[in-house]
Amino acid sequence: MNAKAFSLALFSIVIWGSSFAAIRVSLQGGYDAGQNVLVRFSVASLLFLIYALWPGTKFRLPQTGDAVRILLLGWIGISVYHICVTFGMETISAGTAGMLVGSGPIFTALIAAFVLKERLTGLGWLGLGIGFIGILFIAFGSAGASLTLTSGALLVLVAAFATSVFFVFQKPLFARYSAIELTAYFTWAGTLPFFIFSPGIFTALQNATMEAHLSALYVGVFPAAVAYVTWSTALSMENASSVSSLIYLEPAVAIIVAWLWLHELPTSLALVGGVIAIAGVIIVNALGRKSRSVSRKTAESSI
Questions:
Q1: Rounded to 10 degrees, what is the CA torsion of 113, 116, 117, 120?
Q2: Is 191 exposed, middle or buried (0-12, 13-18, 19+ CB in 10 A)?
Q3: CA Rg, the chain, in Å?
Q4: Which pLDDT score is estimated for 295?
Q5: pLDDT at 188
Q6: Averaged pLDDT for residues 269-286
Q7: Residue 279, CA distances (Å) to 97, 107, 123, 131, 135 in order
């Protein structure tokens, strides 16, 4: 991965890692999950609208053939992901949510193997197996000593899968659109379903704490807008698997920020699972791929 793509992707990971604690603060400060996600992405959508309408900005409209794909990817990568993460975090800690989302490269590797024809070695399949064992430890450890699979953990796992689909299938669109154009269209498309949570939003805005408001504003500006642009820019420079492998750093950021901000730590079992899952991701991405006989460009353009 070249240095610019690495720096942009790493910036996104640090910002996204901090978002779990910020979402938790908003949920504890007066917003319910649906209202929280609506406010965050209303802010992000407004920022992209201002940019698109700014004098001198060249903003291309989607081609007819791309409109449905952009709409579907916006629903998967924005709507499904953020609804599942936010509602999931009503019952699990910020650090645990970060570790489950950090399992995303495992799903990305599977999708890349079947869609992009990225062949895995024996070590690669072993890494996937180790990674899924780690996910099970995190998920079952999210409930503490009871060793039950909570609905919150399941929702965040669905989110991790959704974002993997989103990262892989948006790749061919970079041949026709800039990173900020694509991110804006995905954000606008993904924000539309959030308006089902609008009842009671004005009451929540009046009653929520200042810390909850500031946290929602922070997530709307940085994780929901800026970090998606920098991540898309990195994706446009490198293949989806290489960039997505950096997601294994996100749990560490999430845990550290949650500890410093909320004095909250995942359970011991979940932490062990996080270490196992990260080990699996590293094995897959560092040792688990064979050289492909077709070029990356050809394979990705066939999605």
A1: -30
A2: buried
A3: 19
A4: 38
A5: 97
A6: 79
A7: 18, 15, 12, 7, 11
